[in-house]
Amino acid sequence: MPGHATLAAEWEDLLTRRPAFQDSLHLFGVVLDAWGRWAPPGIPVLGLDEDECRRRWHAGVAVIVSSPPAFDRDSIEPLLAPVLQELAALGEEEAQAVSRFAEAWDEGRLAPESLLPGLSGEGRRRESEALGISADLLSFITYVGLRPPLEAYFGRVQPLFSPDLWDVGACPFCSAPPAFADLADDGKRWLSCALCGGRWSIGRLRCPFCDNRDARTLTRLAAEEQEEGYLIEACDVCRGYIKGVDRRVRWNAASALIEDWGTPHLDVIARGKGYWRATPSLIQLAPPGSTPG
Ligand SMILES: [Zn+2]
Ligand SMILES: [Zn+2]
After folding, report:
1. Would you say domain 165-285 falls under CATH 3.90.1670.10?
2. Which of helix, strand or coil describes residue 109?
3. Which of 133, 167, 229, 285 minimizes the number of CB atoms within 10 Å of its CB?
């Protein structure tokens, strides 16, 4: 899992490669700055032993399910504050939603754990309705605000993982759906979690969202020319999609998270074909052309 300094350097490099996105993707620079500065004392770290982790993975249960984190609200605020400010600047509606979120957070009505998709399931949808915040916005805030504490939380169990222990579409650590796919030199298809930084592998011909394995209903859209190596993998049963990169062609591609953030044009294509993505993206909040500045 790349450190925050690596991610920041890769992001700089990506914006040099794709200068047209510098303004519309400005928010991610703010996110990376907040992550880079974040170093609170006493962040909880999960200390499960290897046998217990293996037992859970063999049973197809992500480790978070029986070992949910309890994060201190104050320690997460420095991650949320700068991002909320940027989100509020997207428009009047967003500003109101962000202020409702901030109010609920300050009053203690919102526990950080209640935002985690792997723990709350349907509860998160109710949370978004009760707060009057769109599910997309709430999800975006969750992903940018909780990644560093989740990385720290799973820091000791992540090295215990090996892909042969896990055969599920969702993240073995936090149970979130995958955000990006990498076709690696070893021919394996690796999935990445944008919420906790987890990484695992499942079969090439398999939808991570509904487990469809029928090649006739799995669609791969491959980009061409300068974009060669970039992919959209979509499922015609559940209509979910995930972007990806074939690293055998594009050996100099950045980390999955950076490539995901830096390819909003591929999300536009997938959405245009009627597919949905399971993890938040800026494109759901601010489609191209609607971002001020
Ligand atoms: Zn995860
Ligand atoms: Zn599917």
Report:
1. yes
2. coil
3. 167
